[in-house]
């Protein structure tokens, strides 16, 4: 059924819901590349007005990808919580925006299981940046493994010690450097150069040794393919979290070499290890706008809606961590700083609204029309929005993946400006070994030596 909206003398017609949502999306290069973006600012605004009048029940009743053709669609509809949805079932998209702006944190937590990704994406398209920040800040998503992530007033950091050759000495140096700045409460997580089980075994054993010797209340992850992690668990290697990149369609996930049954198998295997001390959130997922389009698996749907569908996949497996790598894919999908900033706020909002513990890799590639000032702006906005975690990378420059992100220093800035704390167990550890005072402020001088005093064999 087509949708229509009249602006002055002109009536804009949108063939179906997927077209309407694509045309209502704030401009971004990926949708232009796919040929589905609005052709003018007038058409974009007409689509937003039209989308605001669509009932949420109608979005639920009209899957953008047919149920029988896509397992992500089946997951979304089969997992939908009708009781949670009942509270908002009578609303239109526009009504839902007004509802969200005044809803309490308790209300948002209650309705989260009833919010489908298409509903979250639809309402985000008619919201200003300040709306996305305001609502996301009220969404509380708390997860636990060896510490507690996502509490109000906190911001965690993934310590990312990537190395161009996976050299254990270089990786260890980056870990100690990051810990000395108070990073690592989200996870110590590395993108390895090699996907071999031998490399994974070396890195997992290294991470486990550092965490054990320093008695750090955190978790480690080698960000390799889920099947390699399954092999590692079968071999008895010390796996804390299972990682996988995921997307919003069955075909896009297939391009990553992953299926929902494989994720289920890995989830069950990680739970069986019982390595968490405070909780059993054992999965870690990464996403990013444009992945389905780059795999020619987008079904004519806009990239932001497909990104939200990836959060439905993540939600199924109760992850400890999820993050969008917002500017990593390149300017073909998010052209400049303005598009990256908007996408980061959208992703964070949609994930949190759906009950997903969403962090953001605040990043860009060197061929995008963006710079570190844009990333400072996005980091600040996400801090205000209650982002779960960000990345900590030496010098903000990933020498293995060749992209720009946030540094160990950047999290100190956002903590001071917004008063954000670390995961409480991690913060207590930092104070106990003398890296910070009781308020979480780094103490001057000698941080690395205090770490090595706590575990002198790491200096070898």
Automatic annotation (TrEMBL):
Similarity remark: Belongs to the EutB family.
Cofactor(s) recorded in Swiss-Prot or TrEMBL: adenosylcob(III)alamin
Annotated Gene Ontology cellular component terms: cytosol; ethanolamine ammonia-lyase complex; ethanolamine degradation polyhedral organelle
Recorded metabolic or biological pathway in which this protein acts: Amine and polyamine degradation; ethanolamine degradation
Gene symbol of the encoding locus: eutB
Originating species: Methylorubrum populi (strain ATCC BAA-705 / NCIMB 13946 / BJ001) (Methylobacterium populi)
Keyword Repressor in annotation: no
Keywords: Bacterial microcompartment, Cobalamin, Cobalt, Lyase
One Pfam family from the record: EutB
Designated name of the protein: Ethanolamine ammonia-lyase large subunit
